[in-house]
Predict the 3D structure of the following.
Amino acid sequence: MQVRMVTSAGRADRPNEDFVGAVPGAVVLLDGAGIPGADKLCSHGVAWYTRRLGGALLGQLARSDGQDLAAILATAIGDTAADHVDICDLADPSSPQATVLLARAHRGRLDYLLLADSFLVLDQVDGGPQVITDEREVIARRECSAPLEGVPAGTPEYDRARAACVTALRARRNQPGGYWLAKDDPGAAWEAVTGSRLLADLAGVALLSNGASRIVTPYGLTDWAGLLDLLAAAGPSGVIRRVRQAEAQAGSGPGAPAPDDATVAHCTHLPSTESA
């Protein structure tokens, strides 16, 4: 399996909180959640957390023993939490956390796992691309933001409603009926979206962090089929370059998304059924 990877920090004055890495037959992509105030809860920071968790995941995937991906993630979350639980406040909802996307070729199949809003794009041999994501955080954010509708921005009413929305959203994090991220509780791993496809049915696989997926939504520069074409022509760097151009054109006006860390991994030359 050939893997091309690119990651780009959204801002030059902040560390990249995404992580991407690969071992033979497997890829890991994490998108760290840079929540304001997290540095007061954990002296290490979100970037440290994603690198530590990503390294733990790669270490387990390198064994190539076919262990269940949720079990691998649960162990990695537990090991990473143990590395700093004695000196950091991991119980606070805003302590370091991350989305998780794992893809592994094993015994003729592509196994995958998603926790929160990264994107897995399967380049199917027959038919268009299949896009897989975990929509629970997006749904929770939409529901918690409903009180903001019709409230003028910049007013005291808006500020109060927004603060209440943030509190409501955090209360749903890693809770039944809410949404799940990798943080300090290994049990979150068992809430992940998982699946498996025959490698023979796939020409390739793309993994994107939320920041990289902006090329499709909200910027609408291409659709998912066009994304796969762009990856084939210009690689992951071409995708991120287009995202950065769109962010620059959008500027920093009202409603414009702030630049975000962006990461893409593109897997081709998938192993055959016989050799996987």
